[in-house]
Amino acid sequence: MADDNKDPKDDKGGDKGPQPGVDADAIRAVVQDALANWTPPEPERRPEPRPQPQGDDPLADLIGSRVNPALKHLGYEIADAKDASLFYVGHPEAVKHKAAVEEAFNRLKQQGTPMARAAVWDWYKGKNFDQFRKEAAEAEKEAERRAREAGDTGPGAARHREVQTKDPHTMSDEELSKAMEGVAF
């Protein structure tokens, strides 16, 4: 020990009493002895699963080999029909491009890489971006033209009305009918 003359009261924790020495060789011997006598625990034994009986019915095997591929194909066709019905309801703008979307969808399906119609639609819009942008610009111009002709500024705008300056009590029945034309109560 390097500091045998050190007063135990000099530590900040107060008097801790006599301190035992550590014998590293004794600890090493105990650890080596424990390691020498140690055996790993045995893994938990689980009962082995019993094999399922194989098809002893040759008729069931024969029918299954013929019917299962057809059922698998039918499952794909059902998923295809569901995708088509949901897609065209959710994307009414795609209806006028249905032939091109279906042609690309069927081509992908035949190649063995079927995709949802929404993915095919996104690809088709990207491929024909200029055409779609041109159609959108034409639709916007047409809406502006109709708004100018109608005299309103868009959906929900008030209709343009002529201001009536004549007293309705002095108007004839014909004038009053003409003035009330298009007015809803």
Overall geometric form: elongated
Number of strands: 0
* End-to-end distance: 109 Å
Q: Bin the helical content.
A: 40-55%
Q: Give the SSE order as H and E letters.
A: HHHHHH
Oligomer: single chain
Structural class: mainly alpha
Tally the helices: what do you get?
Answer: 6
**Which sheet architecture does the biggest sheet show?**
none
Radius of gyration: 44 Å
Average pLDDT metric:
79
Plain-language structure description:
- The chain is mainly alpha-helical and 185 residues long.
- The chain has 6 helices and no strands.
- The chain has a domain at 59-150.
- It is elongated.
- Helix 3 (98-110) crosses helix 4.
- The mean pLDDT is 79.
What's the gist of this structure?
By secondary structure, the protein is mainly α.
Question: How are the secondary structure elements laid out?
Answer:
Blueprint: H1 24-36, H2 58-90, H3 98-110, H4 117-127, H5 129-150, H6 173-179
Helix pairs in contact: 3-4
